[in-house]
Specification:
Layout (H helix, E strand, L loop, with lengths): L14 E4 L10 E4 L31 E4 L7 H12 L3 H12 L1 H28 L5 H9 L1 H31 L7 H6 L7 H17 L8 H27 L15 H16 L7 H6 L6 H30 L20 H35 L10 H19 L5 H28 L7 H33 L1
Antiparallel strand pairs: 1-2, 1-3
Length: 486
């Protein structure tokens, strides 16, 4: 370049995009001055020219866009955020699913659903990067059109909103008590104003949840996510240790290894239990936000995050399901936390009860804002399409946060228990987000991303499985409600 040029030099760590003056998605070039691949916007970076042509560009037709170096979260932070997205209230429903399925089938299904979920995450990331989609809805739109994008965003809203309602229900049941179980406050201080479940939930929301939910970036939640994972591990260690001690001492009945098919109710529960397990692994709506803020991001690095997360979650889930079922057997509640108001039959039982319940309530408080983040982003994308990013509008962000928290609070006062919520979200939105949409995305965009024959078969398997399980789950839910009303 001549000395009298008007162009200035670029730092080595900068990124450069050459964009045409028109908005054609088929003519965008990106250059990197280091070895990292950046995720830039939502335009498709494809240049349609023959492979044997020389690479010649008219520089004057491409304005320069310099992108600064990406200082995001590392792999540990991404693992904590993704793990926190997965390990939430669904963990508390797993002992009840083990009661229905039996130990052997329960463990097998946890492992299989976890592996399928991780594979679908990897495929989702691959095709998100391929089409430069920065959100779940964008990659759905690239594959199936705008109508499908709106449907996916509605699914995220229903799924995440339902999950957050469940979190508040658990907090209320554990702290204030329920019809069949005493709350932590009752056991510590006796009867009082803290018996009012709605009031306790409101105080928790205003004092703890609202400040955390007002944060603009998911990377800001990395430390709270790490703390939430640690609290979940404490729960697992305590329950597993107690169950192991009682098992060694011979004070636990031999667990049932297979499913219970002795009654109509047991069979109906069996129909809806797989969707509940599926719900426990859904994290796909937070995959892109976590990837977007990953330092030196690449599909390979995100795949590593997903695999580490899978191993951690499967271990935690199996330990929780087995220990909860061993401890309480046929008396295992749909929310196993409520079982921890009784004598566990070991030394320091009362203290362990408090540690388990209070620790997990703190875990849910720290998980809540991670789920809320993608809920708020999705509602904003649906209602304010074309507006500046939410991170650039503090008033809009706080306004959406306030409205969503109010609606979630109202929902928590209307739904009876977490089993009811999980049965419906698991059979509908969770299966759609976790398996149905990712499978369709892969099948529609496979010709662009080098889809192998094995991946093609696996995608069809996930699609068919999700449809069948969803239909069976919904039918089982309907029959279950009818039988209880009769």
């Amino acid at each position: 370049m001549s000395k009298d040029t008007n162009y200035s030099s670029l730092p080595v760590s900068s990124y450069l995009e050459l964009q045409p003056q028109n908005d054609s998605p088929q003519s965008l070039h990106r250059f990197s001055f280091d070895d990292e691949t950046e995720f830039l916007g939502s335009k498709v970076a494809v240049h349609d020219r023959d492979a044997d042509d020389d690479f010649e560009i008219d520089i004057d037709n491409y304005p320069l866009v310099v992108i600064g170096h990406n200082h995001g979260s590392g792999v540990p932070g991404a693992v904590f955020n993704l793990t926190t997205t997965i390990i939430g209230a669904g963990m508390m429903a797993l002992p009840a699913t083990m009661k229905v399925l039996g130990v052997v089938l329960g463990i097998v299904l946890i492992i299989l659903i976890g592996i399928l979920s991780e594979i679908s995450v990897e495929l989702l990331i691959r095709y998100s990067v391929l089409v430069k989609a920065s959100t779940y809805g964008e990659v759905v739109q690239h594959a199936m059109g705008k109508t499908a994008r709106i449907m996916s965003e509605i699914c995220i809203i229903v799924n995440n909103g339902g999950v957050l309602v469940v979190y508040l229900i658990i907090m209320g049941d554990v702290m204030s008590g329920s019809v069949h179980h005493m709350g932590v406050f009752d056991q510590l201080m006796g009867n009082g104003v803290w018996d009012q479940r709605k009031l306790v939930i409101l105080v928790v929301m205003v004092v703890f949840l609202a400040p955390l939910c007002s944060l603009d970036k998911i990377d800001s939640l990395s430390m709270t996510s790490a703390a939430s994972v640690a609290l979940a591990v404490v729960f697992v260690v305590v329950t597993f240790s107690v169950a192991f001690i009682k098992l060694v001492e011979g004070r636990i009945e031999a667990p049932r290894l297979g499913p219970d098919l002795s009654s109509k109710t047991a069979i109906l529960d069996l129909l809806v239990v797989i969707p509940i397990m599926t719900n426990a692994f859904v994290c796909h709506f937070n995959v892109q936000p976590i990837y977007n803020e990953l330092a030196g991001r690449s599909p390979q690095k995100m795949n590593r995050v997903g695999r580490i997360t899978l191993i951690l979650c499967v271990l935690v889930y199996i330990s929780t399901a087995m220990s909860g079922f061993l401890l309480f057997g046929k008396d295992t509640e749909s929310d196993v936390l409520t079982n921890f108001d009784e004598d566990l039959g070991v030394r320091y039982s009362a203290a362990l009860d408090y540690i388990v319940r209070v620790g997990y309530i703190l875990h849910l408080i720290l998980v809540f804002p991670v789920i809320h983040f993608s809920l708020r982003q999705t509602v904003d994308a649906l209602l304010f399409e074309g507006s500046p990013p939410l991170s650039e509008s503090r008033k809009r962000s706080l306004g959406l946060t306030a409205v969503l928290l109010v609606l979630i609070y109202i929902g928590s006062t209307m739904i009876p228990n977490i089993w009811t919520a999980f049965k419906f979200t698991g059979a509908t939105t969770a299966l759609t987000l976790g398996f149905m949409f990712p499978a369709i995305i892969v099948l529609r965009l496979g010709h662009q991303g080098g889809l192998s024959h094995g991946e093609w078969i696996l995608s069809w398997f996930m699609l068919v499985l999700s449809v069948v399980v969803s239909v069976i789950g919904v039918i089982g839910n309907v029959y279950s409600i009818q039988s209880k009303s009769e």
